[in-house]
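During the first year of the project, the team set up a workflow for recording each protein of interest as an amino acid sequence followed immediately by a discrete structure-token representation. This format lets reviewers and collaborators read both layers of information side by side without switching files. As required by the reporting guidelines, we include two representative entries from the current panel. The first entry is reproduced here exactly as it appears in our internal archive.
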Amino acid sequence: MESSGIPKKSRLLAIVVAIAALLIAVYSVIGQLSGPEVFAEGDTEIAVTAGEHFSVRLADDPADGGHWVIAEPRPDPAVLQATGGHFDADDPPPSGAGGSRYLDFTAVHPGRTDLRLLRCRRCGTPDADEGARSLNFRVTVG
């Protein structure tokens, strides 16, 4: 039997490196396919890593005229950035138009910041706090 000219230890090392690269690639794909981590209203402590995308799921009913906003004081933009959101109606929808509002964020750099969400009908007006609902989260980015 002829030798390929590559030492046995080098071939073994190449195989181990190839398997490790494959496992890392599979882990990355699964992470992207599974989507961002979703936190609920009761998750007042949110811990994520820098570069991670996540969502906060909130009960919502756009038919009643209210909407969710990021309230003052806004989170430290060096730690956390809002990236959008979307609404998913209940399935099948009950008599109303209720569902879940997802607010999306990206953890930028390690640090800690507070996130205050406000559900109001006339946000930004003097009457905004009347009947408003507020949620507070402590976000730690590691």
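The second entry, processed by the same pipeline in the following quarter, appears below.
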Amino acid sequence: MSPGAAAYSFSRRGRTPRLLGVLICVYGALLAAIIFYNAARWLMALLALPTLPALYDLYADPTAGLRLDDAAIRWHSGRRHGELALDEIDHMRLDTRWDLSVRATAVLRSGRRIRLPDESLPPHRALEAALMARGLRVERHHFTQL
């Protein structure tokens, strides 16, 4: 491990301008379908149902993040929190999924695997660099089925 390396920290919030923009566009399109095409309101309401989790994130503004220092990796996502000492970790596994998202799993020396919550992860290249700066081995696996 590199002694004295600065702690790496990442956080994000649920309420973002991008989320607000997407919701405005979706609800605007549904409303336009009702007004201009006389679409069935029950059908438009059914199409709006998948947006409810995003609407909740806009309202509740949950936070998620990760902090990595020379002793431990800590993460939080909403009400969930976790912490692992770096000396417990054998290696970190970064899996690129078919949808191009990256999942991070801590493989412990005991063989146990702990998946870090997706929403608490920083961009994968920054995470990989921060992990390697602390002497952790990182395994990359592309397009595997989990």
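For the second entry, the following points were noted during internal review. The chain has two domains: 17-60, 64-142. Helices lie at 17-37, 41-48, 52-60, 124-133. Both points are flagged for discussion at the upcoming steering committee meeting.
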